[in-house]
Each structure stands twice: as structure tokens, then as C-alpha cells.
Amino acid sequence: MKKFQRFLSVFVMILILLSPISRANADEDTFKVGMEVNYAPFNFSQVDDSNGAVEVSNSPSEYANGYDVQMAKKIADKLGKKLEIQKVEWDGLAPALTSGKIDAIIAGMSPTAERKKSIDFSDNYYTSNLVIVTRKDNEFANAKSLDDLSGMSVTGQLNTFHYSVIDQINNVDKKEAMESFPSMISAVLASKVDGYVSEKPGAMAAVFANDDLTFIDFEDGKGFETDPEDTSIAVGLQKNSDLLDPVNKALSEISEKERDEIMNDMVKISQNEEGEEEAVVTNKGFFEQMKEILSQYSTMFLNGAKNTMIIAIISTLIGFLIGLIVAIIKKISVDKRKNPIGYFFSKLINFILSIYIEVFRGTPMMVQAMLIFYGSKQFFGIDMSSMSAAFLIVSINTGAYLSEVVRGGINSVDEGQMEACKSIGMSHTQSMVHVILPQAIKSILPAIGNEFVINIKDTSVLNVISVTELFFMSKSIAGSTYQIFQTYLVTAIIYFVLTFVVTRIIMLIEKKMNNKDFILESSTGDRHAARNN
Q1: Between residues 130 and 230, which one has the greater pLDDT?
Q2: Rounded to 5 degrees, what angle do the CA atoms 321, 322, 325 make?
Q3: How many CB atoms lie within 10 A of CB 484?
Q4: Is the bond leading into 41 cis (omega within 30 degrees of zero)?
Q5: Range 391-413 average pLDDT
Q6: What is the pLDDT of residues 122-162, one digit of tens each?
Q7: Is the pLDDT of residue 235 over 80?
Q8: Cα–Cα distance between 384 and 374 in angstroms, integer?
Q9: DSSP assignment, residue 39?
Q10: In angstroms, how far is the first alpha carbon of the chain from the final one?
């Protein structure tokens, strides 16, 4: 147990050193902008700062580029501030803004009436028409108007106006909204849906990256009817933000000609027309594309895998400690007649711990992450970094599960051993530490290992709070290259390698412990036999 305590202390120190320092009082000279960094050509990921890319603050090995990034740079320059790009999941952009995690959203977001209820918007900085991306061999590929799309199955991105305009198609088969453009591209390529709604620049990038795709560009007056605010893109700001007027002034100084030139440049860059940029050339075989993705983005994959393993290892250890403490406390019994006050507090603590266990076992980790990360900042003024929040969330979630595992392990030890300990004068604490817990921990080691493997995979939900783990990195790569299947197959292989290695290490530890026990029992038996002879 002493060795375990020292081992755990080392990991706690590592946790403290690795957790990024919270920046509750951000530098007023910094303009913090949130975006997905996976929607080319508006914002996409690359591995260096070529073509004016900006390093992503919460993902040091990653650089953001695209139309949104270039506009953000111009706005920051005119505001006299240093630009800071934060990679945030689409659904987390609004909470990140309202909670003060970021100063602005510049992510191809349209100033719809629904969004205006919670945030303010600047003047528009881009306007685009809507098209439908589909397969080249799809029966609707040559359509020229909405009237030609009767019976077509169409989807759009979740929480965007793209999804609502689908209703304008007569007799349309409207599918469920999807989380991201890579998800929709995958669905179209797999013929799960006939097409999805997109702005034209995004459609151009998707088509270039996938030879099987095309897009339906409607004739004038025969496409979607939209309000100007729906087809426009603006900067999202907090309600009554002091930045609104300065941002509008900065945008007014950027001419339409300059904006068009920036978009054209970003489309070319995202389509790899100006050298070795983001998109992977599609005239290669499937596995050649996989190899090129892995080669080009190896740094991002490795950093994502590193963060995933750090979170999983440290959080599992801390979660085990939490579970151990909770299980021991719940096993403590107080005599009501001898100590009524102690009995009352014991029951109260057990009630609180039971609530903790039920709440964290009964709610998804993704929901817990959103509430803790954004809620703590918005309502309590606690500004945690993404990694610090990740350690906290996964640790307390793991603790809730392992507390029941540890309790089961303790209950599996014969009650007679506790009675034997008491009979030789050992206290309850001594009995637990020296006799009961070592046996319980040995019996639950497979369950702890299983929880560790689960944590490796479950870190993927932390992308909602901008933790740059393996899955979030993969989403950026997929959204930047539009090579969806290739990217996620690489990701799946990395996850498999991580979990396979971990399970084999745990099996070796179990085998070693069992062999030690066998040798100890055998040698003890030999000594007993020698004495009897």
C-alpha cells in the first residue's frame, strides 16, 4: 500500500504539472476567436504556419487557416490585439462565447433570428448561395431547380439554417440533421442520403477532395429562398459586447474585392492548388491516401493519442483513489446507541456519496463535461482549462463507477478475516489496509483495467469542451481534407493499438501477481510440510 501511495503521488504531481494554467483574467490585448478548424475553406487544419496560418492555442501542434482565420487576423490587427485561435466543437461555440471562454465566434456562422436571442452579431463579412452536394452517379445530380428534387433524401448540419431550408423541396425525404460536414459527406458517399445542403465554397472543397461527389448549383430563381441573414456570415459576440462597434468598423475597412480575393485564395489552398497544402490528392488509391494522411498529419495524430493516454492514465488512477475512499467510507459502521451524533453524520455522508454515485453513473459524460466546463465559468467564475476540466470530469466519473467495483471487491473477502483481525487486536483501519484491501484490489484488477480501456475510448466525448484528444484531432483532419473514411480508419487503428497494448500489459500484471501468490503459497506449504515431518 505504501508503494501504491507513492506511485499515486507521482501521478498527482504529473497531473498538476501537465494541467494548463487557467487564464481567468485573460490579457485584454488578446482577441480570442473560436472556430471548429474543420470546415474548409472557411476554417481548416494544417501542420505548419504556411500561407498565413495561425497556431491553435489549445492544440499546439495544429495550425488553423481558411477564410475565417484570415478575416479574424484582419479584425485583430485593426483592433490592435493579438489573435488567439481556439478550437471549439460547433455545438460548444455558443456556450464558449456566453461563458466568456472566447471573445468572438468567427466560424462561418449565420446571424439567424434564433441565434440572435442568445448572442449578438456584427455586420456580415461573407455571403454565399446554397447548393446541394451529392454523388456524381446520383439520379438527382443533373438537377437545375428544386422542382427536380422531388423524392430526394436530403440532410443538413445540426443547429444550422441549412436544415430548415430542406422543407422547400416538394415531396422531400428529409433525413435527421447531422453533427458535422464530414459526417454528411460520409453519409452521401455511403449512399445513406442523396445529398446535403452546403454553402458553395464548402461544396467546392468537398467535391475536389472526393472524385465521387458533385454539387447541384441551381439556376437563378430556381434554388432555395433564403433571407439575407441566412446566407450571410457574421462575427458572433456576447450580448451588449463592447467589441461590436470596433468589429463593425474593422469589417467596414475590408472591401468586397479584398474579401473575394481572400476566399478565392483559401479555396485554392484548401484544394491543394498552390503547393503542398491541406487537401490530399484523390487520384491515388484508398490505402495510398491513408498513408499520405498518416504521413502528413502524423504530428497531430500523435499529439491527440498522447493527450488521450495522459487523460486516461491519470484519471483512472485518481478515479480509483476516489472509488477506494468512497467504498471505505461507505463500509464504516457507527453504533447508533454508543455514538448517535457520529451515526447521524455517517448516514448523511453515505447519503451524499450515494447521490454522487447515482448522478455520475446515471448521466452521460458528455453532458457532465458541458455542465462542468461551461457552467463553472458562467455561473461561478471558475475558468478551467480544457485539460484540467478533462482530468476532473473523467476522474469523478471513473470514481463513481469504481466505488461500486471496490465495494464489490471488499464484499468478496470472507467476513471471517475481519473477525480474525479484530481478535488479534487490529483496528478497523489496520484490518482494511493490511488484510482486506490488498485482497480486494487483486480481485478487482481486471475491472480496473477494463475501466482504463473504456476511458481511453470515452475521452472522445471531451471534444465538446475543446479537449484536443485523438478523436477531436481526427475530426479536424477529416474536415480539412474531406477524406473521411481514410482518416477515421487511421484513427480506428490507433485506438485499437492503444487498447490492445494496454489490455496485454494488464494481463501480464495479473499473471505476475497470480504467479507470486502461487510461489508464496507453495513455499509456505513446503515449510508447513517440513515442520510436520
Answers
A1: 130
A2: 85
A3: 26
A4: yes
A5: 91
A6: 999 998 889 999 999 999 999 999 999 999 999 999 888 89
A7: yes
A8: 9
A9: B
A10: 36
The b-or-e profile of 226-263 (16+ CB within 10 A means b, else e) is beebbbbbbbbbbeebebbebbbebbeebeeeebeebb
Q: Is 277 helix (H, G, I), strand (E, B) or coil?
A: coil
Look at 211 and 309; give whichever has higher pLDDT: 309
**C-alpha dist (Å) from residue 152 to 197, 351, 420:** 12, 55, 75
CA distance 40 to 266: 8
330 contact partners, CB below 8 Å, separation of at least 6 = 350, 353, 403, 407
Mean pLDDT confidence for 431-456 = 87
- Cβ–Cβ under 8 Å, residues 142 and 174: no
CA 322 – CA 327 distance, rounded (Å): 9
Cell of 239: 450580448
Q: For the stretch 315-353, what's the b/e string if a residue is b when 16 or more beta carbons lie within 10 angstroms of its beta carbon?
A: bbbbbbbbbbebbbebbeeeeeeeeeeeeeebeeeeeeb
Pick the more confident residue, 9 or 396.
396
Strand boundaries in 156-230, DSSP class E: 173-174, 195-199, 213-216
Span 479-515, pLDDT tens digits: 888 788 889 999 999 999 999 999 999 888 878 777 6
| C-alpha cell read off for 484 | 473521411
- Cα–Cα distance, 201 to 302 (Å, whole number): 30
Beta bridge partners of 84: 32
